[in-house]
Specification:
InterPro entries: ClpP/crotonase-like_dom_sf (IPR029045), Tail-specific_protease (IPR005151). This protein is an alpha/beta fold. The protein contains 9 helices and 17 strands. The relative contact order is 0.17.
Length: 432
């Protein structure tokens, strides 16, 4: 079941809901008592301008659905109207507010915010964009093209190596047949070694990354945990009442009935048990034992999810540069004319691992070449990976590292969440 976050608009006939309140016009008005808020909690004023209501809404949505909502202050302390109403433009005001919201939660390992970014005060993960999403929060326009950029089989003495370059994870319906064909062709030669080239893969649909994992995994893994999505306690315990104003639509974009009324995102099952996914073998490939993955600072989100899912069950080696580091995912909410993507769930693999906020370190560090010919055995990254499989070079213990070429400037190429596609979950399910 897809999630479509159609949200609420101003409507003369129904006085549409902007947030938790009924709005009569774009400017000041009286509103009903807030829905689902604690009596002692101070909420936003009942009158104001459209921009002021939007500032209120961004913060109050974060208070319920943001992954790290436990550290956010109360409305009267945060004072969104007072802080941001005088920005040069309304989009600047909203983005400045979102950035400040994202900086409260500190990573205890680094002492810095999880969403720290050095790019124009934009959060590392959360983001806001102009335009209301009508496709379930999926940035489909940015997830296009072919998933498979290149493939080949390499015979090295008695070793059979399969190579597949994946550029992104488009919607599964658009790429499933191509993925099936590629991996079925690979299966004929029964390779023991698989090289996945994810150097330019910024992510996409979780469903597609999961499908690739099921194409790689043998049937013996069926029923074993692949990964889980962990939402904050407010969502898990069904207390995110604000989501009553975000309609839940079916795959055709239609509202559906739930317990005698229209379903909303508040009716979704956000429990960890309800969002745990297990292996379910696809295709005919059964022979893979060792997985070598070419990565860079552009490797992010759903591509990192794929790596994480494979680690507990395969001998996985990373070659290239440290990945971006995005173990969180999103679903969009519509506020006025904007789509807001607050980091909303943490991705954990079968071993409960999710700690790659600062990126996954490669086992073998090499410099990414400019304009590589993917699949060419002489291309530096692929050449190094083949040499690693052939044991012509060795991976040293992690503490000392193994470096073919040391990059003098290790600043990430990806500088904010808008540069990558994100971890997009389009299969949220209603509670039973």
């Amino acid at each position: 079941m897809k999630i479509y976050n159609k949200g609420c608009t101003y409507d003369k006939s129904i006085k549409g809901i902007l947030f938790l309140f009924l709005i009569v016009a774009y400017t000041g008005c009286k509103k009903d008592k807030p829905i689902g808020m604690n009596e002692e909690e101070v909420v936003s004023p009942t009158t104001g301008t459209r921009i002021e209501f939007t500032l209120d809404s961004i913060f109050l949505y974060a208070k319920q659905i943001y992954l790290w909502n436990d550290v956010l202050p109360g409305y009267s302390t945060f004072k969104p109207r007072e802080k941001y109403s005088n920005a040069q433009s309304e989009i600047s005001a909203f983005r400045n507010e979102l950035f400040d919201i994202s900086q409260f939660k500190l990573n205890q390992v680094t002492g810095k915010p999880f969403e720290l970014s050095t790019y124009n005060n934009l959060p590392k993960y959360s983001y806001l964009q102009i335009g209301r999403t009508t496709d379930g929060g999926n940035r489909a326009g940015q997830i296009n093209g072919e998933a498979v950029l290149a493939k080949r089989l390499i015979h090295l003495d008695d070793k059979v190596i399969a190579y597949v370059a994946l550029g992104s994870f488009p919607s599964l319906s658009n790429t499933k047949s191509n993925l099936n064909q590629v991996f079925d062709e690979i299966a004929i030669d029964k390779p023991k070694y698989l090289i996945l080239d994810l150097r330019s893969n910024g992510g996409g649909y979780v469903e597609t990354a999961e499908y690739v994992a099921n194409l790689i995994a043998p049937r013996t893994l069926n029923g074993k945990i692949m990964y889980s999505e962990q939402f904050n306690p407010t969502l898990q315990n069904g207390r995110a009442t604000i989501l009553r104003h975000q309609p839940y639509l079916d795959e055709n974009g239609k509202t559906i009935m739930y317990n005698g009324r229209l379903a909303t995102l508040a009716d979704v099952d956000y429990t960890e048990s309800g969002n745990t996914y297990k292996f379910n073998k696809k295709g005919n490939l059964e022979s893979i034992q060792d997985v070598y993955i070419i990565v860079s600072t552009r490797t992010a989100s759903a591509s990192e999810l794929l790596i994480s899912c494979l680690k507990p069950y395969f001998n996985v080696k990373l070659i290239g540069e440290k990945t971006y580091g995005k173990p969180v995912g999103f679903f969009a909410v519509n506020i006025d004319q904007y789509s807001v993507y607050l980091s909303s769930f943490l991705i954990k693999n079968a071993q409960g691992w999710s700690d790659y906020f600062n990126g996954m370190e490669p086992d073998l560090n090499i410099i990414m070449p400019d304009n590589p010919i993917l699949g060419d055995p002489e291309e530096p990254c692929l050449k190094a990976t083949i040499a690693l499989i052939d044991r012509k070079i060795q991976v040293q213990p992690k503490k000392s590292g193994s470096v073919l070429k040391q990059r003098s400037n290790t600043a990430p190429v990806l500088v904010n969440s808008m540069d990558s596609i994100g971890i997009i979950e389009n299969r949220l399910k209603l509670k039973h």
